[in-house]
Every structure is written in C-alpha cells, then in structure tokens.
User: What shape does this take?
Amino acid sequence: VTLFFAFVLLALAGAVVVLFAMMGELTARLPRLHVGYRDPFLRPLEEAQVGARPNAWPPPLAPIAETEGPAFIMVLSTACATCEDVATQLSEGFGNGDVPDPALVISSGSRRTGEDFVKRHGLDRMPCYVDEEGEWLIRSFGVKTSPTALVLRNGALSSAFVFGDVATLNREVLEKQLEVEAP
Amino acid sequence: MSDDPNTAGDACLGGHTSAGTSIPRRRFLAGLGASGLVVAEALFGRTAAAEASGDCSCCNLVYCPPNTTYDSCTSTCHYLWGCAGSGTITCNCCEKKNCSTGAYYASAYTCWVH
Assistant: This one.
C-alpha cells in the first residue's frame, strides 16, 4: 500500500512539473500569439471600377459628390468577420485627426441587420448608409468585397483598397492622398 | 554590475547567476513543456480551435460552421458578399434567406488565395 501511494505521489509531482513546464512554454510563445494582433494587409481591390461615378447618391453620402479633393468611404459588411474587427477599431477612434472621418457604407442582407451593426459599434456618429444587399455599391463602383476603402475625387472613384488595419490604411493611403492635395 | 550580458540579464530577473547549470535545466523544462503542449493540442486543440474560429475564415455567418453547400446557397434567395482576410485570402460569404420574410436559414462560403 505504501509503495502504491508513493507511486501515486510521484506521478502527481511529475504531472505538476509538466503543467508548470507547459505554462512556461506558453508564456515564451506569447509574443507570437499576443492578443490584439491583426494582419495589417492592404492591397488594391481589383474588382473596383476606377473612374466610375454613381448616377445617384444616397442622402448621407450626397456631400461626397460635391467634394473636389479626396473623400473617403469605408465599406463594411455584416457578413464579414474582418469588418467586425475594423468596426471595433473605428469605434475606438479614427486616426489622429489629420484624416477627416470617412463616410460609411454598410452592406447587409437586410436594413435591420445593417442598422443593428451600426448601433452595436456606435458608428452612427459618422455619415452612414445601410446598403441592402450592397446593390448601390455594386451598381455604382462594382464593389462587392469588404473591408474596403474607396478614395473619390469630384464624385468619381479614384482608387480602392481592401485592408485589415485602420492605422495602416491611414498611414499608407489616406494621409498620402491628403498630402498630394496640400499646397 | 557584471559586463557579461548573460549574467547581467539574469541579475535583472532576480539575481540568479548560475547560468551554467540553469540553461540545461531550462532546455529540459522547455522540451518537457513543449511535449506536454503537443500532447494537449493533439487531445483537445483541434475541437477548441475549430469552435473558437467558427471555421468560417473571414466570413461572419449566421450559421457557422456552414449548414449548406455554396452552390445550394447561391441557387435560391440569398445575400452574397465578399470578405478580405489575412494575407491574400478572399472569400464569398453566402446567407440563404427566405424570399418573403428575409430571415436567414442557412449559410455557406467559399475562399481562394490571390
């Protein structure tokens, strides 16, 4: 009996050592797996029809049609997991004040789902349009993918990018567009 | 303070200076921990990872994992939208919906790499 308990005790001690060793190994791997990491991918959206000009503008976006310099639209969708992360980034604040807040277009299967998305992320402080089934986006710019940033000049599409990180988008695209405009 | 970067580093972590004996011990424990993690991952990791990610790539679907095929989803009333994910992955996310009420009742997706 004593020998049996000694064996059990030894096995338990071994298990505790292995557990602590596993915790140490997990801690060592933390920098590679740290919470909050997001892939800052940024690439041109091939499907976008550069030069396209919408026939009609939804009321929240109407001022963009008259904007001479660069104007920005961010396209998000309720069916896109990356967009959930981008919406969270936007709700935490947009840029450092150098870039004006973009207008938002939310593509959604239904108006209610789109409005829920806007409300959940507190995005209603920005000019925002819920585009049912993305019809306006597809018809106007040929865009059917998100998260996408549209750069417009004089109401026409100048360039379009898919992205995963708002800060990277600001730094690599939006700020540079504004620099071009600066005298 | 020692000029030796190894011992200086140890001193910053609490004054241990027995680098000669602790390194093999660390390597042994790291190996033990890594082996334990491999076993734990083999036993429990697959299910947990699949549940955590939802296994739907960059799609945010109502039914995840999908409960229909992509072809079936696009053959009837549906909402179809693309999402861009990490690296160069792009997916088409499909929500099958009731034509009259608009309620979603099935989901599917397909992905490709550029």
User: Anything to note?
Assistant: Chain A touches chain B through 36 residues (CB under 8 Å). Residues 30-34 of chain A have pLDDT under 50 and may be disordered.
